[in-house]
Amino acid sequence: MSCPSPSLLDRYNAMSIRAAGRVISSYSSSFSLATNLLPSAMRRDIANLYAMVRIADEIVDGTAEEAGLTAEQVARALDNYERAVLAAPDLHFHVDPVLHAYAETARRCRFNPDHVRAFFRSMRMDLSQATHDPESLGEYIYGSAEVIGLLCVSVFLSGEDATPGARAELDRGARALGAAFQKVNFLRDFAQDEGHLGRVYFPEIQQRGLTEETKAHLVRDIQQDLRVARAALPGLPSGAQVGVAAAAGLFEELNNRIDRMPAEAVRAGRVSVPGPVKLRIAAKEAAQVARRSWRPE
Asked: What's the rounded Cα separation, in Å, for the pair 217 and 111?
């Protein structure tokens, strides 16, 4: 007996999910590795979320400008994309495969539109603000990274029951992890951000430069964020813990490498973690989660 053919919409849904998955694998080996450690449904939803976020990043980080768009056209493209993303969950078909995949995830996981709006506010700051004071940096990191962590929690808890207290603790950890990722990225990409985009995110660096002292202070701040994030890990659904722990471990390693490097080297180029090291870290984090989860009979 032959199996029934998939419907037209089923085929389009599957294609859109594959398209979104190609975005994360093309742009971030670290997030791709960590996401691959999640159960298939979570992996799909995180990839769909990442793809939407990545496209917004590309609008403001030079790709649209390289394609010949003026500053006004770039701003308009971001506005149009925000409107499309916010409206996406209300429609069950989109001509943009990434938006189609994102919309399905946003509907099912009940994404908070206020988190999405905060994300786009931060993206808009990149178009008009090259430096920050502590208040504006906090707002920027909240919208560009912390709310992405909150949306990830919505994915992880889809179909789960969580008490308000448990959800608050997971949200606290997710915000801390998102902040750590973003701050590490600021240091990793310092040369690119300053040299090509004219951005200096940290007020300390704007005032005193990227010195050994400012670097050490920022590394310690990131370490504290990672400690807060790791403390919340056991509260996640078991299927999410390995992927999130791996992501934390990969960025922790990147932060450690920045800590060991002279400030001059960080100023000169992009810091990275070799592929084999990433695999070892992911395996170590998976083993630690397994040990923590194991209970003797």
From this structure: 34
The model carries a pTM of 0.94
CA separation for the pair 180, 106 (Å, rounded): 24
Other CB atoms within 10 Å distance of the CB of residue 168: 12
Strand pairing partners for 131? 200
* Half-sphere exposure for 150 (CA within 13 Å, toward CB): 21
- Give the pLDDT of the chain (297 residues) as one tens digit per residue: 556 678 999 999 999 999 999 999 999 999 999 999 999 999 999 999 999 999 999 999 999 999 999 999 999 999 999 999 999 999 999 999 999 999 999 999 999 999 999 999 999 999 999 999 999 999 999 999 999 999 999 999 998 888 999 999 999 999 999 999 999 999 999 998 988 889 999 999 999 999 999 999 999 999 999 999 999 999 999 999 999 999 999 999 999 999 999 999 999 987 899 999 999 999 999 999 998 876 554
Q: Which residues, in sequence order, are CB contacts of 179 under 8 Å at separation 6+?
A: 141, 145, 146, 225
Q: Which tokens belong to 233?
A: 């890990």
Domain ranges of the chain: 9-157+169-288
The CATH architecture of the domain made up of 9-157+169-288 is Orthogonal Bundle (1.10)
Cα torsion 26, 153, 273, 179 to 10°: value is 110
Dihedral sign, Cα of residue 182, residue 185, residue 190, residue 195: negative
If phi > 0 it is left, if psi is from -120 to 50 it is alpha, else beta; for residue 210 that is beta
Residue with token string 């998939």: 6
Per DSSP, what are the bridge partners of residue 200?
131
